[in-house]
Write a structure and sequence with these properties.
With 337 residues, the chain is of the alpha+beta class. Helix content is 45%, strand content 21%. A 6-stranded antiparallel beta sheet has the order 7-3-11-10-9-8, sandwiched between helices. Strands 4-5-6 form a 3-stranded antiparallel beta sheet. It has a two-stranded antiparallel ribbon with strand order 1-2.
């Protein structure tokens, strides 16, 4: 590293100030706001040197500077401290984990919502699809219209899947209830992966004239099982709270980016700075990640059983220290420590 201790202190102060204010930072601001022990003129000279080395940039005609990607990387790698979470923040994270710990999918979804609210960033969770081992709890058929039926499958872990399909004849709800009960009796307690051809043929024989319904049921279950992973997204519109994304073209581009499941998985999988169990990607433009965005991803575990990843997406001036502290605290609780 080619920076002096004084330059490191100045860069750290600039990054922290820009994260808080989103405004270019000048030497007078640093001199008044931070106890650096040097004059504004000396700070100005050091800022000029930091700009020459690529750690800062002077936007437009502003007298102040803002960090570059290189500046943020140095900050995250060597200068970032561990923010102490507020007592109430720790308490609500604890309550969320405790109340949802028995159902992994529910736990991850609720944590994603909570963390998005705490940080005001977009959160994305990607977790393995365990549908093949998911246990069927009950099946319900609902009459929607003369020729349309809704098929609902509920698993033991509380996940609900549904699908509409067309029928060739009208089936009253009373008849659908009988068929639903029959299907539930035959399939309750079974795993999706256990439904082999012999079992399916037996169930169709038992159902008799309404065996076509079984085909629709199997199609629905197979579609669920074919998904390699699931994605949960929360706080997508939080990005609008940051002045960098007041530009509607940028905002729309961000929302469009979040609509593609495969694109999200690729973004989260982009290799960045490795810090403890975190992967931090700072606006590098790779894999269509905007240079205005950063992504912090943690691999989370529930009682030593790896379940997936949780990511925070925000502007490059996101509060890395805050997110780092939240994810570390969450990991400790999930690991049961």
């Amino acid at each position: 590293m080619d920076l002096t201790e004084r330059q490191l202190n100045i860069l750290k102060a600039i990054v922290k100030d820009y994260i808080e204010t989103a405004e270019a930072v000048g030497s007078r601001t640093l001199s008044k706001k931070y106890n650096l022990g040097i004059s504004a003129a000396t700070i100005r000279n050091e800022m000029s040197d930091l700009e020459d080395m690529g750690y800062l940039v002077q936007p437009h005609t502003s007298a102040g500077r803002i960090p570059t990607q290189k500046g943020y990387i140095l900050y995250v790698d060597f200068l970032m401290g561990n923010s102490e979470l507020e007592a109430h923040e720790k308490e609500i994270i604890q309550k969320c984990i405790k109340s949802n710990f028995e159902k992994v999918d529910s736990l991850i979804e609720e944590l994603s919502k909570l963390l998005s609210s705490l940080t005001n960033y977009t959160t994305i969770t990607v977790y393995d699809n365990h549908s093949e081992t998911s246990i069927i709890k009950y099946i319900q058929l609902v009459n929607l219209s003369v020729d349309k039926i809704l098929l609902i499958v509920v698993s033991e872990d509380g996940e609900i899947k549904s699908q509409e399909f067309i029928t060739t004849e009208e089936l009253p709800q009373a008849k659908l209830n009988v068929i639903s009960s029959n299907l539930t009796n035959k399939l309750s307690g079974k795993k999706i992966g256990d439904l082999d051809e012999n079992m399916i043929e037996y169930i169709k024989y038992e159902i008799g004239e309404y065996s076509d319904i079984v085909d629709d049921l199997i199609d629905l279950l197979n579609d669920v099982a074919d998904e390699d992973f699931k994605i949960s997204l929360n706080g997508a519109t939080n990005i609008f709270n940051y002045p960098e994304f007041n530009d509607m073209v940028k905002a729309k581009s961000f929302l469009n980016m979040l609509e593609e499941k495969d694109h999200i998985a690729k973004m989260i999988g982009t290799k960045g700075i490795q810090k403890d169990n975190l992967n931090i990607v700072i606006g590098n433009g790779e894999n269509n990640i905007s240079t205005d965005l950063s992504i912090i991803t943690a691999t989370y575990n529930v009682q030593d059983n790896m379940q997936g990843k949780i990511s925070f997406i925000g502007p490059t001036r996101m509060d890395y220290s805050k997110v780092y502290s939240i994810l570390n605290y969450m990991s400790l609780l999930l690991d049961g420590k």
